[in-house]
Amino acid sequence: MSCTGIETVRRDNCLLVKNLVTECLHKILIDRDVPGAVQFVKNTISDLLMNRMDLSLLVITKVGNCFGAMVPSIGF
Asked: Which end of the chain is more exposed for a tag (fewer CB within 10 A), N or C?
């Protein structure tokens, strides 16, 4: 599945968000499994709360200007 402009391709979120959104979108849109997507989110949150998740998934690797995407560009 190709994604553009949503959380799966943003670089200012942690890897956990990317993986969670990607898997949920796949379960909902491709597999048509909404209950499976809900269960996946619940399991992920449970793993996070029970310290069963690698903390490197929570690292944000890029922090930039939050208004950078809103600045218009003018070409001549």
From this structure: C
